[in-house]
Hints:
The structure holds two protein chains of two kinds. Chain A has 16 helices and eight strands. Chain A is an alpha+beta fold. The longest helix of chain A is centred in the N-terminal third of the chain and has 29 residues, at 100-128. Chain A is globular, with a radius of gyration of 22 Å. Chain B has one domain (3-154): NADH:ubiquinone oxidoreductase Nqo5 subunit (Beta Polymerase, domain 2), CATH 3.30.460. In chain B, a hairpin with a 6-residue loop joins strand 1 and strand 2 (60-64). Classes of the chains: A alpha+beta, B alpha/beta. Chain A binds chain B through residues 48-49, 52, 54, 56-58, 61, 217, 219-222, 224, 233-235, 240, 302-307, 309, 316, 318, 320, 322, 331, 333, 335, 339-340, 342-344, 347, 372, and chain B through 55-59, 61, 85-89, 91, 93-94, 102, 104, 108, 111, 115, 135-137, 139-141, 144, 162-165, 172-173, 183-186.
Amino acid sequence: MDSTTKNSNFKTEEYQINMGPQHPATHGVLNLLLTIDGEIIKKVEPDLGYIHRSIEKMCERDSYQQIVHLTDRMDYLSSNINNEAVCLAVENALELEVPERVKVIRTIIGELTRISSHCLWWGVMGMDVGALSTFFYGFRDREMINDIFEETCGARLTMNYNVPGGLMLDIHPNFVKRVKKFVAHFKTKIPEYDRLLTQNVIFQKRTKGVGILTKEDAISFGASGPVARASGYSCDVRKYHPYSALDKVSFKESLKTEGDTFARYQVRIMELWESLSIIEQLIDNIPEGEHRVKTNAVIKLPKGEFYQKVETARGELGVYIISKGTKNPYRLKFRSPGFSNLSLLNHIAVGGKIGDLVAIMATIDLVIPDIDR
Amino acid sequence: MTNGSLQHSISSWFPIPEVEELADSKEQHEINEISEENIEPAIPINSSLLEFSQEASQFLNITVQPEQLYDLMRLLKTNDQTHFDYLFCLSGVDFGEELGVVYHLESTIHRHMLVVKVKTSDRENPMLDSVCDIWYTAEFHEREVFDFFGIKFKNHPNLKRLFLTEDWDGFPLRKDYEDTINMIVK
Lengths: 373, 186
């Protein structure tokens, strides 16, 4: 026992430090104002807005086709799923039935997007807790998906592949072959991920029992996606409000009940397997047909309110459109998963150490443009 | 629960004294009609002040008076029949004349959904009750609404700008916001 703890003349004092906006663990321009007592966190206050572009206001100016392009720039790791959310909202409002082929391709690409996002997450998760090599392995596998996307639509990250009414282009003739090759490849790689990081003793000690979120709090904080499912809250939009071809496939919702950082990690690894299974069920049965139905050049939604939920790699994305019957939305709100997931950071990080906060933030998997919109 | 029975049970929490004997008759739709059409202003909490609508929306919509908002929300969360424990979207809306907030609610047990709307015509100093002690998620969402629409929330623990700087002039997502530096050209 050192003398300072015994001697009452020495008292610790709370003070504040900034973590970010340039901190590597914040994965973007997020500033966390930490109130700490030594190493112990007393309060975490996020300071947002460094890259706020006011996408919601821009949407009030733009046509529905243009809005799709803006959504890429929110959660850029789930860009295709964001595009799909707006397209589904517009199609539902117009009561437009898209061809089966479109639904299946959207779902396959959506799941590929999820895998690619989780690969990146897994890479930086390892890096955040001090295992640099995971970054290279994660990016190696993610590169294969990006190559498929590039061949399909010309873009690797911000895809803009969906349009209201279907897809911008039909899939490339190589698509099926390459996706199958990737699935076979990736199945041998997830066990490698487990051997490299999941079973690592140091990693487990850094994550087990850290940042525990109970189910009640997860619901009350509006958590969604892997963060909520690691606390035992069954909330997969793909199960409860299936969209596109997700009602035709069978998959297990990845659930854990521990609610700690390690559980959130495991849920994402489980999701990788489920996404692969969804792709395998669909890839051999892409129906023939049109890749797009014709819509009017100027899309006018009927008067009313429309809400569409989808499950991005981070959780539940909601698109809430209020239309007055014109070619622009009157109000468009994006309910982004990262925003709600960030709000629980203070709740689960208090009492832990700064190093724990880095691990917690890695498993909340924040994408800052998604929060700042 | 279907939208019809949801509407029935919610309106039954706030009985209208004059028509209480009607509630004994088992005609459910009759009660609903009365609760929709009876516009007698009186008694503070009263289902005649709740406006139910399902027009042009996939959810059941309730429009509530600002002074009733907190009580209604607390009941929606705590009542076993409704059990709306998941506030999945909270949006500020500038309705033109009025400013308002739209709450999207879901029950994680019953899996039904509901939209609650509240409007205030005071554009100078709009004030609504905060619901962040009912759903923790509202704390951040209400700060966002305050930031962009200038709606103040009573009993909010930390109401200050979230995205914009403290010295920002005006509330950008209002329809009458003057965009002097043409950041977003209309």
